[in-house]
Amino acid sequence: MNFSHDTELTLRAACVLVNTTRVDGERLDGMAALDEYLDGFGWTGRRDRDAAELDAVKTLRARIGKIWTHAEDEERVVGQVNALLSDTRAAPWLTRHAEMPEWHLHLASIHDPLWQRMGAEMAMSLADLIRAGELRRLKTCAAPDCEAVLVDLSRNRSRMFCDTGNCGNRQHVAAYRERRAHEDPA
Fold it and tell me: So which domain of life are we looking at (predicted)?
């Protein structure tokens, strides 16, 4: 299933945001870290660059993380996404930028608080997953020592490991070593 470019980008942004507290401790620990995250995903609009804004983004991160946690319960996720759409007063409108000339949706004014813009766009991207019957694309890393989340955008939904800690490679090496240890030396 192919999603629009802005939906995929926003799903990845949501995933990375959630993982800022699930991998290597708190990584959204100040304005520089928040700016790096925002710039990395091209978030536009108002930035207050204060402690209240950082706290609001962390609160949003927790809400989005709960959606991943409950991804197997469609009714519950629908309730969470609807609540987020309502709380952010999402109002879709089409736009494009020089750096992204394709038409895409914005769901809040560039003057609205950062968390509100982020939350509205993340909720809408999650709504796209729900409408397509693709919530199973929201996963938690299958490595036993990792709590990172991932969004599986592969064609056949076969991705099992995050890309935050080389988990897939570590698990494959461990499985290889396990097989080698049990082989007959004959």
Answer: Bacteria
pLDDT tens digits, residue range 119-133?
999 999 999 999 999
pLDDT in tens, 23-65: 889 999 999 999 999 999 999 899 999 999 999 999 999 999 9
Q: Which CATH superfamily is domain 5-181 in?
A: Jann2411-like domain (1.10.3300.10)
Average of per-residue pLDDT across 173-177? 60
Contact in structure between 115 and 100 (CB atoms under 8 Å): no
Q: Within 10 Å of residue 88's Cβ, how many Cβ atoms?
A: 23
Residues in the chain: 186
Residue 14 vs residues 62, 174, 179, 184: alpha-carbon distances, Å:
11, 30, 37, 47
What torsion, rounded to 10 degrees, do the Cα atoms 45, 71, 65, 96 define?
-10
> pTM value?
0.88
Query: Dihedral of the CA atoms 101, 96, 88, 67 (nearest 10)?
Result: -10
Hey, what amino acid is at 146? C
**What residues have CB less than 8 Å from 2, skipping those under 6 apart?**
none
